[in-house]
Amino acid sequence: MASYIARRVAYLIPIWLGITLLAFLISTLAPGDPAQIYFQRTRGRQPTQQELQIVRERFNLDEPVVEQYLSWLSGAVRGDLGVSFTTGKPVLDELLLRFPATLTLAFWATVVTVVVAIPIGILAAIRRNSVLDQVTRAMSMLGASIPSFWLALLLIILFSVKLQWLPASGQQGWESLILPALALGLGDAAVVARLTRSSLLEIINEDYVKTARAKGLSEGRIMIRHILRNGMGAVVTQIGLAFGFLLAYSAIVEVIFVWPGIGRLAVDAIGQRDYTMIQGFVVFAGSIFVLINLAVDLSYMWLDPRVTLSGDKAVAG
Amino acid sequence: MTAFKGSWSGRVVALGLLGAFILPACAVGGESDGGSPDAVEQKLVVGADEDGYTTEGAEADVGQYPLNANIFESLVRMDESYEIEPALATSWEFVAPNTWRFKLREGVTFHDGTPFDAEAVKYTFDRVAKTGGGTPGFAKNGTKVIDDYTVEVTPQFDNRRLLEQLVHPSYSIIAPGSSPGKKPIGTGPFSLVEYERQQQIVVERYDDYWGEPAQLDEITFRFLPDPNARRLALEAGEVDLVLDVAREAIPDLESKGFVIAESQPGAYSAMYLNISGQKGYTILQDSDVRHAIGNAIDRDTLIDGIFEGLATDEQTMVPSRLLGDANASKVEGYSFDSAAAAQLLEDAGWTMGSDGVREKDGEPLRLQLINGFPSASDHGAVPEFIQGQLGDVGIEVEIVKTPDTASYEERLAAGEGDIWMEQGSQNDANPLFLPALLFWSVGLFGDIGYQQLFAPGGEFDVLIEDALATPNPAEVKELVGEAMHVLIDQEAVVIPLAGLYRINVLTDEVQGFNTQPSGLQIRYDTVSMGNGAS
Questions:
Q1: Cβ distance of A104 and B66 shorter than 8 Å
Q2: Is the pTM of this model over 0.90?
Q3: Is A99-273 assigned to CATH 1.20.1260.10?
Q4: Any chain A CB within 8 A of the CB of B33?
Q5: Among candidates A130, A140, A143, A138, which has minimal Cα distance to A193?
Q6: Is B354 in a helix, a strand, or coil?
């Protein structure tokens, strides 16, 4: 097991280098001269030659690309992602300052996912093909198809504009968390509910469940001790991945709700062509996603002790 | 079956505990702003676009640009007709060969109590000089203190338009030794309370203001980058005023009782036609074809149907209000006349083919329209409308949408395209800026890519150079009026589509809001909150 973990961690190195290369290439492959675009986005007009030269020198944009990448990479390895074009502060500091807000939002969105999806999934599995099951399936198809930013606007229209129960944006205490958490969590809930249902259905027909039933155990006991315990591995994996995804990619919902997380930071950085910040975000978000993936893989072993590992392949025994 | 080591539910509890740990660590500091303001409370909440301030170095411009939070003031300002008015300077004169002398207002203090004087002006302009000098071309040591209230400015190059450029908030005066990135300290009617990056900037009335003190106690500008979210914040009662609302949202907001405040036109939508003949884009070298395009467009339908009636048929590019009526009327523009357009194309040898597309020597009349400045979405359905209108006279148009401004400009530099859709706005009182920047063959900032495709040279260049040389603003307007006549009517390099204005939406509690053709000039000192009808 230790060697498996070591190997998984070693795999992260080429993946991480790939992320840094992609992040860096964004600014070199993107059309236009970064200095000119940065100037135009922040000043609203074309730069004079002199103004352009000052910007180039300040951000080392006059060096060869390979040198720019290597000096940036050597910094990134040491946790130095450079300095933001627009704020002059270290990129990593800015990301860490904003990360707690994103983490909070992702956590509550995941709570929404779990609280909504698991009971619905269980009920749908127990009452298979009932009206409830049909409705659940239709709803989860719908939920999985609705983009979160659109759901966000619908929620604002209902709860902020029509009912005026909850704030449309900002950070005015816990009320401000509800709508963004719903907007992000409900989409995943649809996927997780379906997965819960199908995972449980596989197990409901297993011999050991029939045996338990034959022994005269109550349905509740069977559900908790035999079905849920054995059927939730895939569901937990999915929830973990969804959580990782939320940490890195909740940008549009953060923009709509003016939530001061890293997604919002990234979108604004793109708007201002703050290249160091964009690169830093890609590396940061990519690293988190890769680490969460690793954590989910490892927790899968931990949560379901039947899983043993031979080589790379997880085998249920 | 394998024996369980530890229970599953126990692990769920462990995960739950982890969550409980995350929570307090990340509890978000929710400072309530007190909910929606009371009707009689003199507090205004403005929904503004994304936070575009730079907070670093000599370029830091918090409170100045792109959102003018009324913390700072310039030496001069302009009214809604682009007329120059005294502000921190009370009078000025041009001293040949290249110096501007300003008399400064006395008895003005910065928000930190320091008196405003010539040193502050020198500090501000020297700071801009460090970043290259801006459009006025402030030079290192180019600003000289003559006495406490007299200052002389000598730019890097011969610049007769300095006065008209100074109205831009980027050149507003900051307290000596200060930086807007650390703490914005100006002389304006409002002083800074708090700036939270990408969240909001809050200002309060400055009681020792030299002019009439503001009526509002406090203004909160909230940065709401998503246009839909901005509009919904207004409907939810979280903001009182939204700047620059999209046209398509107006009919609905109007029906809900919001007040629509339209400015005078200060921007334009236009097509620039590639006359270079480079890279096979040769068709528009023929002036008849260019004039035909001008005549083929039904601007009434365009404005009513595509611009929702929220634009004007102004065809001067440079706002007519800035040029003055007499000078603006030198530009005739184009009227819709598809028969005349068809005749021009016939005369040029383009005959109608069987598929409805004209041909000449076996070559179809096919043009590429590039949409992407400032962004493709800014033009809405205008490119498709143009495509339809030109299709009616036998010109086939292929629309190329560029994903962002950068790729638009890269394409422009490569010269690949016939028709270039642009929107531009006039943000200072210098009518020469855009014509000289884009179409003068020398280029205000050199050849920036536009020159190779669009500069007609000849008479246009002569008029622009004359205008650049005169210190007399009235003469400049006259010369620019003539230059635009050459550019639009004679050369048909620019085909204007519409004059655009800013649309702000407010609740009926907001009183005394003044619109400005340039959003950078909006002043909030006349605004107050009253009891609305709702």
A1: no
A2: no
A3: no
A4: yes
A5: A140
A6: coil
